[in-house]
Amino acid sequence: MTQAGRQGSPRNGSGRNSSGRNEARGGTGRSNAGGFSGRGGNAGAGKRSFNQGEGRPFRASKPREERPFDPDNPTTAGGYEARQAKPAKPFRKPGSNKPGYGKAPGTPGALKPKPKPGNAKQYGSKAFGSERFGQNLGPVRKPGRARGPRQEVPQSELHDADGVRLQKVMAQAGVASRRVCEEMILEGRVEVDGQVTTELGMRVDPTTAVIHVDGIRIQLDETLVYMVFNKPKGVVSTMEDPEGRPCISDFLKNNKNKGERLFHVGRLDVATEGLLLLTNDGELANRLTHPSFEVPKTYLVQVRGPFPQGVGAKLKSGVELEDGVATVDSFRLVDSTPGHVLIEVVLHSGKNRIVRRVFDAVGFPVERLVRVKVGPIGLGDQRQGSIRNLGRQEIGHLLASVGL
After folding, report:
1. With 60 as the cut, is the pLDDT of residue 124 above it?
2. Tally of CB atoms within 10 A around 104
3. Closest Cα to residue 351, out of 376, 331, 318, 325?
4. Cα distance between residue 332 and residue 348, in whole Å
């Protein structure tokens, strides 16, 4: 395009406004051959002008029409009050937008009722709350055996003038601080020899008194030892083996209680892995193995798959063995892989090789067997071949499970 054509094009300033716009920019604009040379010519060049609309007539804005005021309906005035007045929202109960609201309790899809605060006691502090182990053991489970009526004994007869204050004994046992122990006593959470006490001045003999806090037995005898051993496969459940096979004492060499005479509670055969309790508390060991206390034991069983339906129900109803009928308390399928099935079973029988014999009877021989729990005590993530001491809360739950 030629120079003349550029000057007359619509994009050029001279083509759109040859008088007003060029004058507003100092009389030069973009019509000059130099393009932006007009910026330095006049004093007003390059400045924006606000007088471009001088030729337009002034038009005043129309006043807003106000509606007449009705005293019976103030919102018709159209003023500020009318703009602010909004229709009230209907009242809606909290949670009414949740699915299942309004359905009768117990019907499918109905909301679960919230527990009332008065149904369970809410305490501010927990016994043995600062321990590493045994934090999630739940409520204490005592054996459901028939007992005679409790004899009410005056608290004055439980008082030992030569003993130690009850709150001090509890604090030394690791329950909580002395001040918190006093609060537990006043709240009626402490039992001494089976009787609830609420007196802060009571003194007891630590060597003979039996103290429970929230149903958890406090073990005051520091000479008693309670440990958990995660037995590997191939280890014999004995302290000494004349044939020279690996046994429990081989794993106690580096333990601080290696000189103690310990009992292993129950037995696991050589091919079975898992939890084995070790203690020098003879009374506890006897009760844990006695069938009358029915302490549950949890196992993980691996068998060949697939596992047909109805076998679990058969195990619950009872399987005939050479020494009688054997049943499992619970049966649950944990995992399934091609060719293998992992099952969790719980039973309280202490017969020799009971789990393996039961599964052999239904036609599924055990490939691998691991005991993961005895009563309230579980293995968790404990490394295989390691030994650890039980926490005080775990000891209390274990003692309570057999009525101690």
Report:
1. no
2. 6
3. 325
4. 16
- Residue 230's pLDDT is 93
Tens-place pLDDT, residues 244-274: 888 898 888 766 665 567 888 888 999 999 9
Q: CB of 134 within 8 A of CB of 390?
A: yes
Q: Of 186, 177, 192, which Cα lies nearest the Cα of 123?
A: 186
Q: Look at residue 364 and give its three-state secondary structure.
A: coil
Residue that the structure tokens 């395009």 belong to: 1
Q: Judging by DSSP bridges, how do beta strands 226-231 and 195-196 pair with one another?
A: unpaired
In terms of residues, how long is the chain?
404
Q: Which residue has the higher pLDDT, 22 or 137?
A: 137
Average pLDDT across the chain, whole number: 74
Cβ atoms of 198 and 184 closer than 8 Å: no
374: pLDDT strictly greater than 60: yes
Distance from C-alpha of 239 to C-alpha of 250, rounded to nearest angstrom: 8
Cβ contacts of 135 within 8 Å, gap of 6 or more = 129, 393
Give the C-alpha separation, 226 to 280, whole Å: 7
Angle ∠(279,284,290) on CA atoms, nearest 5: 120
Residue 219, token pair as written in the block: 């073990």
| Distance from the Cα of residue 256 to its chain's centroid | 33
Positions annotated as catalytic residues are 269
pLDDT, tens digit, for every residue of 76-105?
545 545 455 556 666 566 666 666 666 666
- How many other C-beta atoms lie within 10 A of the C-beta of residue 204? 23
Distance CA 268, CA 275 (A): 9
Tokens matching residue 77: 């005035």
Q: What is the pLDDT of residues 216-230, one digit of tens each?
A: 888 888 889 999 999
The label of the residue with tokens 């274990």 reads 398
Secondary element (H or E) of residue 366: strand 366-374
Other C-beta atoms within 10 Å of 5: how many? 9
Buried b (16+ CB within 10 A) or exposed e, 227-258: bbbbbeeebbbeeeeeeeeebbeebbeebeee
